[in-house]
């Protein structure tokens, strides 16, 4: 079970990020989650959005360098230790986490974590066995 993440190559210069976010906003594409990692010259903006296909098309039409990656989204109780439980389950299952980022949902009861791992299906199974629900692509628009 996975969700679709967009990664955008962003030059590390004034205005680059606003161009991307303005472009998505003008197309009524809602950002559900985002993360940015940067170096001296560029960054990688990772996005979970309300309409992945439209976002990919719009960004490509603006000559952005974009890729799509399947990632796991897990719904956690919004309480201390919830993320630690997920990481422990993955560690004990032999899963290496390449990167992750978190976001809150519309209610205060849940938080979400996005995980980039080698085996999305194995991670979903490990989490489900521990009572931790993964979110589907369809559920992204409901968050």
In short:
The protein has 143 residues and is of the alpha+beta class. The protein has helices at residues 16-26, 52-61, 82-92, 120-129, 137-140; strands at residues 3-11, 31-38, 42-49, 66-77, 97-104, 110-117, 133-134.
Overall structural domain count = 2
Question: Treating each run of at least 4 consecutive H or I residues as one helix, how many helices?
Answer: 5
Write down the CATH topology of the largest domain: VC0802-like
Secondary-structure arrangement, i.e. CATH architecture of the largest domain = 2-Layer Sandwich
Rg (C-alpha, Å): 16 Å
CATH class of the largest domain: Alpha Beta
Explained architecture:
There is one protein chain. This protein has helices spanning 16-26, 52-61, 82-92, 120-129, 137-140, and strands spanning 3-11, 31-38, 42-49, 66-77, 97-104, 110-117, 133-134. With 143 residues, it is an alpha+beta fold. The chain folds into 2 domains: 3-68, VC0802-like (2-Layer Sandwich); 70-140, VC0802-like, CATH 3.30.2130.10. Strands 1, 2, 3, 4, 5, 6 and 7 form a 7-stranded antiparallel sheet that branches. The model has no long low-confidence stretch (mean pLDDT 92).
List the helices and strands and how they pair.
Elements: E1 3-11, H1 16-26, E2 31-38, E3 42-49, H2 52-61, E4 66-77, H3 82-92, E5 97-104, E6 110-117, H4 120-129, E7 133-134, H5 137-140
Antiparallel strand pairs: 1-3, 1-4, 2-3, 4-6, 4-7, 5-6
Which labels suit this protein?
globular, 7-stranded antiparallel sheet, 32% helix, VC0802-like, 143 residues, 5 helices, alpha+beta, single chain, 2 domains
């Amino acid at each position: 079970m996975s969700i679709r993440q967009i990664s955008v190559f962003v030059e590390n210069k004034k205005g680059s990020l606003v161009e991307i976010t303005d472009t998505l906003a003008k197309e009524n594409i809602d950002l559900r989650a985002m993360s940015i990692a940067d170096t001296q010259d560029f960054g990688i903006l990772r996005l979970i959005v309300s309409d992945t296909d439209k976002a990919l098309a719009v960004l490509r039409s603006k000559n952005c360098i974009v890729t799509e990656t399947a990632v796991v989204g897990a719904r956690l109780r919004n309480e201390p230790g919830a993320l630690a439980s997920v990481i422990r389950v993955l560690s004990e299952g032999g899963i290496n986490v390449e990167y992750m980022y978190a976001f809150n949902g519309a209610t205060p009861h849940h938080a979400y974590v996005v995980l980039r791992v080698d085996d999305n299906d194995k991670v979903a199974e490990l989490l489900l066995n521990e009572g931790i629900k993964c979110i589907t692509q369809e559920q992204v628009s409901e968050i």
